[in-house]
What we know:
The chain has 339 residues and is an alpha+beta fold. The chain has two domains: 19-153 and 328-333, Rossmann fold (3-Layer(aba) Sandwich), CATH 3.40.50; 166-326, Tumour Suppressor Smad4, CATH 2.60.200. 27% of the residues lie in helices and 33% in strands. The protein is built from nine helices and 17 strands. Strands 1, 7, 8, 9, 10, 11, 12, 13, 14, 15, 16 and 17 form a twelve-stranded antiparallel β-sheet that branches. Strands 3-4-2-5-6 form a five-stranded parallel β-sheet, sandwiched between helices. Helix 1 packs parallel to helix 6 and helix 7 crosses helix 8. The radius of gyration is 20 Å and the shape is elongated. This is Diacylglycerol kinase family enzyme.
Amino acid sequence: MDHSPFLLSGTQDASQRPYIRFILSRGAGKGNAHALAQAIRSCYPHATHSELGGDRRQAGRVTISLTRGPDHVQKLAAEWNEFWGDKGVCYVAGGDGSVNEVVQALAGKDCAFGVIPMGTGNDFARSLYGEDVGYRDALSLISATKNVEFSPIDVLQVNDLYCANVFSLGYDTEVLREAMRVQRRFRALGSSAYGLGVARTLWREKSVPLAFSYHDIAGEHHQIEQACTVFVVGNGRMYGGGYQPLPDALLDDAHADFLYSDSLSLLGIGRLLAKYRDGSHTESPVAHMDEIVDLHVERIDGESLLWNIDGLIYESDAVDIKNIPSAVTLARLVPGVQE
C-alpha cells in the first residue's frame, strides 16, 4: 500500500482521550495475549485489569480486559463508552471479527477505537498500517498509543449491522466459508487458509444471478440485472488476507467503493485473482468500479443470498447497504512511533 487510507487530517490527540481500555481477544495472536499484556504494562505501569460489569473507578485511566466469550468484545466496548464517552478509547487486539464487534458497539457513539492486529487475516489493519502488518507491529503499536491522533471514519450499515471494512457476496464468500473450515482444523495456517479455500471451491458454481440498484456519488440511480462472480462494497481496501478488491478506497470520504465483475470462468477467476494482490484489476474489462452511497441487492432466482461483512458470514433474502459518514472515531496509530 503506497498511499494513506485517509482523506482528512486527524482532529484530536491522545490528551483528549485519556481513558484507555485494551481489549485482548484470548484466541487472537496464536496465544500471544499474555505477551501483549506485558507490553502494555511496560508502557503503562499503572494499568489495571478489569472485567465486564466492574466499576469505572476501579478500572482507572488505563485498563486491560480479556475476552471471555461470544460478543464480549462488543460488550466491553459498549461499557467503556458508557463510562467515559468522548474521553475514552478502546484498543482491540484481535482480527477483523473483533474490529467488527467494536464497531457494532461504537457506531454513532462518542468513544473511539483503535486496532492492534492480532488476528488471522487482519485485513482492516492492513488497510491502516500496510500489507505486511504482523505481531511485531502489534507490539510497537502499544507505545504508539501515547502519541496518536483521532478522526472520524465512515462505516457501512448492512441491513441492521455495521461493517468497518468490506462487504462481499458470491464466490468469495464461498471461499471464505471453506477457509474458515480449514482454519478451525489447522490454526497454524493463518491467512494462507484463504488459498486453500480457493482450491476447495474451484469446481463449484462461480456466479450469482443478481438484481441490484444503487446511487452513485453524483446522485444517479443505477439498476442492473446480471450474473456476477465478484461483488464487493467497502470503505477498507483489503480482504482475504491481503487481496485488494478496492485499492483506492478511503475510510473518511463519505462514500463507499463498489466492485462487481461479470460472470467469470475458472480461467477468468484465476486472472482476476492474480491482479487482486496489487489492485491492478481496476483496468480489467470484466471488473466494474463505482463510488456509491447506497445499494440494494437480491438474487434474481429468489434464492437467499450468502454474504459476509468483515469476515463474518450471514444469509438473507436481500441486502440493503448505506454508507454512514463519520460514524465512529478511529485512533490513527502509526507503527514504530514512540511517545
